[in-house]
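Subject: Sanity check before I submit

Could someone independently write out the structure tokens for this chain? I want to compare against mine line by line before I put it in a report. The sequence has 265 residues.
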Amino acid sequence: MMADEKKEIPSEEAVVDVEAVAAQGGVVSSVKGRIRKKKEEERCPLGENVYSVLIVAPVMSWSFLFSMSIVAIKLIVLVILCTDINFNDLNIQKVRVTVVKFLLIPVAVAMQEDLMESFFFFANCVYCERILEISASATKAKMYFSYFLRTIDGILSLYVNFAVMLTTDKTIDVFLNFAALQFLYSIDDVFYKLISEGFFGDALEHMTVLCGKVTLARRYGKNNYKIFFFRVSWLDTILFFFILSAGYIGYVVVTIATYNDTISL
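---
Independent answer below. Compare away.
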């Protein structure tokens, strides 16, 4: 006589765990699929600033020269500010001022719109030849030239913001300096607004219309190739945390030197 076989019935907890894992895997898969579909369909605009006009305007045209003059003015002012910041007169500050500066470093980095937009472009955008159908002057070389200038703009702006913050010894002045510098960072946006309203002629205004039509493809699939162990689309995140780390290192060095009264920058 054969012994009755005993069938093990899974507990309710085990069934719930299996269903939860399956559901979680489905959600992750669904999220990745949606993000991929979004990247396939999404187009990245150039943005409303004079750097966009540099891309679509013919070289040596009034539109190109005017935009370059605005960029040059902004960069010259930033360079003058960089050379005028003095680290030799730093005084020992109150603890709360030091803490405020520590907390504002990520804000100072994130607020650099030109730098963040450049990081996003190099990491996530792909040039396509269809842009030439909108503007024959919007070549790949000019686009990279424009974003190179925008990156330089962002780096200089970040340095000025960071250096002014480090050399400020009152909490309220830290915030006031943050606000005061914002008008300088938005010079290109302000002039683009004036251009789009026709303040500087129809030719320039037409360039803003072209800027609104030009879009870039998102990087995905074969365009999202690897550099060593990293995907190109990770570049914006990597650069953000690299700049943030450099900011904190500079903050620590300057703070220690100030408290030790040995700064000699």
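---
OP: Matches mine. For the report I'm noting this point. Residues 43-260 form one domain.
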